[in-house]
Give the backbone structure.
Amino acid sequence: MLSMRVVFIGICLGAGPLVPAIAADDTPLNVKPGLWEMTSEGASSGAPPIPAEALARMSPEQRAQLEAAMKEAMSKQQQRRVAKKCVTQKDIARGFADMDKMGQGCTRTVKSSSSTLQEGSVQCSGPTQASGTYRFEARSPESVVATWDMTMSDGSHTMKMKNNIQGKWLGSDCKAGSDD
């Protein structure tokens, strides 16, 4: 199931604003908490690594539904998306980490962390191997840019995903329209 979670997380990361910046360092980005508008664009290639035993348990109809859903999700990931996200001080202090959703067997390595830049890598082990890098830059307390690249493989299927995100702070009041 790790592969499905990783595929889902990878696709959602394109729409889920600040998640790619995963920092374990105590130095948070110098950004303001509040409502942020995040614009993301991504690209993906290859076939998602879905374990053969999972596919074998599916009926032909279920398999067709899964393939259609994955195709639609990959297509959406490649479209420009705009989302509003309420970012709390706790989110900023945690480096926008959301490793719990990645599943067990995933570790992160922080290459650098400062008030203006966080970058590093993520590595997941198991039947499906996944690895990726991220870079999150606070250009000002009200402007951020981020990139992430992820590769997943089960040995016979490999999928690559890339995402670019630009964010701007809209104000301190999150009640003004978060998509959360």
